Amino acid sequence: MESGTAQASTEATNGAAADHLEVLNPATGALIATVPVDSPQSVAETVARVRANQPEWEALGIEGRYRWLGKLRDWLLDNSDRVLDTMQLETGKVRADASNEPAYLADLINFYGAKAAKFIGEQSVRPHTPLLAAKKLRIQYRPHPVVGIISPWNFPLILALGDAIPALQAGAAAVIKPSEFTPLGLIEVVEAWKKEIGGPDILDCVQGTGETGGALVDEVDFIQFTGSDRTGRKVMARAAETLTPVSLELGGKDPMIVLSDADLDRAANAAAWGGMMNSGQICMSVERIYVEEPVYDEFVAKLTAEVGKLRQGADDRGFGKDVGAMTSPNQTAIVEDHVDDALASGARALTGGKRVEGPGDYFEPTVLVDVDHSMKVMRDETFGPVVGVMKARDAEEALRLANDSRYGLSGSVFGERERAERVARRVECGAVNVNDVLVNYLASDVPMGGWKESGIGYRHGEPGIKKYCRTESIVITRFGGKREPTWYPYTKGRRGLVGRIAQAFNARDLKRRLGMRG
Ligand code: NAD
């Protein structure tokens, strides 16, 4: 691997000064690349460079920008295997999990390419009052010139380029700081944008840990952050210093509710996939499951059997495994702590329950029962291949437990469709799936964003591109005399006329319209 691509050295991970990142393969622990760290000065230079090119990019218009992004889509489709190889190396994902990333990005480019004119095209608005009849009202959406994107390690392209795509389609330039653990895939795509696609110089990335992220916050006009709520708070505080707007996509502790009339095979298979996919390292992973009493035993047996069958390890283009490695060693320690805490407090692991002996960084797919909300595993974000299952007396108790969380990212409800939908409407979160899991992320048509401590702002849908724009309202005078009645000079006669006209239009009853009191 060339220099300029890489992963985090111990020093860099710990936040101490380091001039390079060391990127490790989590499936083996081997060093695969080193990447130079960007100093605050180099971050400022990168932002200044793309800022200088942004007006020309914006001037291309929605269609012109989509033409360029379409070339990126074609490159991603043509080079998918190459991108997936890199991503597997730096994340330890199994092939199937890695393969979601280019496909999602290609779809997102098409989605915003087709919808941008509707979402952020110029709007004409009819004045709400006849008093403004002489005015023509327009709204134009102008991008924040440079959008900074700070992303985590669990989906190194989806959560980096996936946020850059609507920003670029809106006319902004974008600078991305990927996670120090997984910079390689993004570097490969950005290099391709510059050298193979020959795209305008309005997309770049900078490398490093929190220090580089902080420097990016200082330089850009809008920050899109995805990561933990702990870091999200720091990013928001730093952005406050320059009054830079932020959108924060933070952690989750997503509940799944299984009602007594659910298709239990589908619910158990969904719980296994929704909890273990990407080794449970998804903000929207199923982490807590509440099952109505009559079907609890049957559901738990089916879930345990399904999870127990999963093949864990490293695979290749042959798609031979189901569950991959833990991408960050820090996260494995958190997962282990949550499971140990639960087991020490009386929980039982029906399958899994411990870290796998090396080489590589793996945690066994785990189903915990006899858990409760005093345990970390049901309260804090675990972000690993672990689900805790609780029996609920009825749907009301399941809902109460599902909503008993400081997080509110997404959730799911399984059951007879209409009943499940009624329950789903009462789950306190930004997106809820009925009889499915995780799938809302592919429905880019509808927004998703965290409630409570899961975030501020939205991705996807109309808000997912509008957030990158500033609105400029243009009020155009179609006709008028030398002066308006509201202008100088203020005289009793002119002000009296203005008052009578205003009253005539504002009153909603005849007496007042005629200037009388009610
Ligand atoms: P993290 O918060 O540790 O790091 C995220 C990014 O922030 C990294 O690039 C990191 O280098 C950078 N960073 C760290 N300190 C910073 C600082 N002071 N200023 C600026 N940037 C800084 O998160 P992580 O461990 O990489 O990712 C896991 C977390 O991300 C989980 O909590 C998960 O739920 C969350 N996540 C949320 C979503 C979502 O859409 N809501 C999606 C994926 C992951």
Describe this structure as you would to a colleague.
This protein has 518 residues and is an alpha/beta fold. Helices cover 41% and strands 19% of the residues. The protein contains 19 helices and 22 strands. A 7-stranded mixed sheet has the order 12-15-16-11-10-18-19, with helices on both faces. The chain is globular, with a radius of gyration of 27 Å. Mean pLDDT is 96; it is low at 1-17.
In short:
By secondary structure, the protein is of the alpha/beta class. Helices cover 41% and strands 19% of the residues. Strand 10, helix 11 (264-276) and strand 11 form a beta-alpha-beta unit.
Helix and strand arrangement:
Elements (H helix, E strand, L loop, with lengths): L9 H4 L6 E5 L6 E6 L3 H20 L1 H18 L1 H12 L3 H4 L1 H21 L2 E3 L9 E9 L2 E5 L10 H9 L3 E5 L6 H13 L6 E3 L4 H10 L2 E5 L2 H13 L4 E4 L4 E5 L5 H13 L9 E7 L3 H13 L20 H16 L3 E4 L3 E2 L5 E2 L2 E4 L6 H4 L6 E7 L2 H9 L3 E2 L1 E5 L2 H8 L6 E4 L16 E2 L2 E2 L6 H4 L2 E9 L14 H15 L3 H4 L5
Parallel strand pairs: 5-6, 5-8, 6-7, 8-9, 10-11, 10-18, 11-16, 15-16, 18-19
Antiparallel strand pairs: 1-2, 3-4, 4-22, 9-21, 12-15, 13-14, 17-20
Helix pairs in contact: 2-9, 3-6, 4-8, 6-7, 9-10, 11-12
The structure holds nicotinamide-adenine-dinucleotide.
Nicotinamide-adenine-dinucleotide binds next to helix 9 and helix 10.
Order of strands, main sheet, comes to: 12-15-16-11-10-18-19
- Arithmetic mean of pLDDT: 96
Gross morphology is: globular
The count of helical stretches stands at 19
Ligands, ions, cofactors: nicotinamide-adenine-dinucleotide
- DSSP, total strands: 22
What Rg, in angstroms, do the CA atoms define?
A: 27 Å
Structural class: alpha/beta
Strand content: 15-25%
Largest sheet: 7 strands, mixed
Secondary structure: helix percent: 40-55%
Distance between the termini: 81 Å
Residue runs with pLDDT of under 50 for 5 or more positions: 1-17
